[in-house]
Write the structure tokens for this entry.
Amino acid sequence: MREARVALGETAFETMGIAELVSLSRDSGVLGFEALACHGTGAIVQVAVERSIDEDRLDALESVDWWERIAESADEHRYVIAFTASELPESLADSADDLVGTCDPNVSRRGVTLSLVGSQETIAGTVDDYEAAGVSLDLRKFGPYEGRDHPLAELTARQREAVRTAHELGYYEVPRTVTTEDVAAELGVDSSTVAEHLQRAERNLFGHHL
């Protein structure tokens, strides 16, 4: 497992279609930022700001899928925001989903740095796809992944979702009580997609333990 630490500059936000969201957050005085989940060309983030975000503008942003204000005090407002980088191609979403994850983001006035975690081939393909989409990534560090030592850390977000859902429905019971079609119906995707996610997840989990 490898990790690439990369930086995205200000121009990348414009190219990705999230510049207005970044600007809106900064206008409210960003105190903290945490990525809760990453999926393809989108993410769910928790943002702490000094002042309430202009929620009418937040509603109007095409890049924002949904948002919720989860805490408010005299000196801090906290939001959970789900967004999609609308200007990025779907092909990049496919390659990004093969990563174990994009983690440890650091947001500053100069841009964002984050880690791409996965095989060397997957990381290289993701970087190439970003470059092809016009988003320049500045490689700061590349080497072995020394992050969380947990089996589920070996899986992509979609693989974890598929495995958890399959387990909850009884897919791994003996005898098996549901099929991939049942899991697919619960997730709202094709059964072939579920079968692929489960097969890749099982391969990665066995690789971790064996």
Q: What stands out?
A: The radius of gyration is 19 Å. The beta strands are 2-8, 30-39, 42-49, 64-72, 77-84, 101-108, 111-118, 137-144. The helical segments are 10-16, 19-27, 55-60, 90-96, 120-132, 157-169, 180-187, 191-209.
